[in-house]
Amino acid sequence: MEFSTRVCFKLSAGGSGMLMDKVHSSRKQNRWQIGQSRMLCTLAFLACIAPGTQFLAAVVLSHGDALRIGRKIWQNECNGTIAGLTSWNEGENFASLGIGHFIWYPKNQRGPFEESFPKLVSFIASRGAKLPAFLLKIEETPCPWNSRAEFLHAQHTPAMNQLRQFLANTVDFQAEFLISRLQNALPKMLAEAAPSDRANVQQQFERMASTREGCFALADYVNFKGEGVLHTERYQGEGWGLLQVLDAMHGIEPARAVNEFSRSAKTVLERRVQNAPPQRHESRWLAGWIQRVNSYSRG
Predict the structure, then answer these.
(1) Which string of b and e fits 198-227 if b means at least 16 CB within 10 Å?
(2) CA-based angle 67:81:220, to the nearest 5?
(3) How far apart are CA 124 and CA 143, in angstroms?
(4) CA nearest to 71, candidates 211, 180, 172
């Protein structure tokens, strides 16, 4: 498959296959594949950032390619296991759920990071999948476990088992959700970037999106560390998202884009750890983060 450097996102149906150790496909998978067989949806978007300036962004992905990206992200986040679909990392105040470790905060808990699990559940519901009863009003429902200790103690409860099975059965929709987030990333980044930086950010995005390896790196990193547009996701005024990684790149050749992206991401993540509040002890995660972004250049 070839990727378009004119950046317009398209998901089209194609061969999928089972992901990792997923036991069953989604209940609505057959209906979903039939309904999206001609196109899983062609999403073109225009970002009008300044008067007289239009930015057209895009990537073309088959359904099979979207699932392969989802599978690799599942491997990065959860070691590709069903058990890894329900996690709560030490030192965090939120659960990390699904193939992308989507964040779900307990009641009266918030942090600098965007809460993404409720958005995921709403997305899956819109695709016709059956939700566990306790997720039916997800926009009003906080994470039912208030701490990591409670979460770990509940590993074999009915609610946790239902949640884990739901996530195992909807890997295809989670992959689609991840690609949807990437589709929406460029307009957000261009709106946040300084006017003088916008052309370079778009150019670097298009360099990356022109190859399969680059497209995966974009999708993985935006899920891993966000778009870089939220002012709450800053330490000492410095962000660590996709915008910051692309903004620090200045190459031209597509063939070298992924290597440059890995180096830029490493620098951005090291800066994040240096700027982080000491009580977060983020240096404990840095080696794993660097290993992850270095893997982009290895394909």
Answers:
(1) beebbbbbbbbbbbbbbbbbbbbbbbbbbb
(2) 45
(3) 17
(4) 172
**CA separation, residue 125 to residues 43, 166, 170 (Å):** 20, 11, 10
What is the β-pairing status of strands 102-104 and 95-97?
antiparallel
For 146-157, b where at least 16 C-beta lie within 10 A, e where not — what string?
Answer: eebeebeebeee
Query: What is the token pair recorded at 94?
Result: 């939120």
**Contact indicator for 138, 118 with CB cutoff of 8 Å:** yes
Q: Which residues pair with 45 in a beta bridge?
A: 57
Gyration radius of the chain's alpha carbons: 19
Q: Which residues contact 125 (CB under 8 A, 6 or more apart)?
A: 131, 138
pLDDT tens for 211-269 read 889 989 999 999 889 999 999 999 999 999 999 999 999 999 999 999 999 999 999 99
Helix, strand, coil distribution of the chain in percent, nearest 5? 55, 10, 35
3 state SS of 297: helix
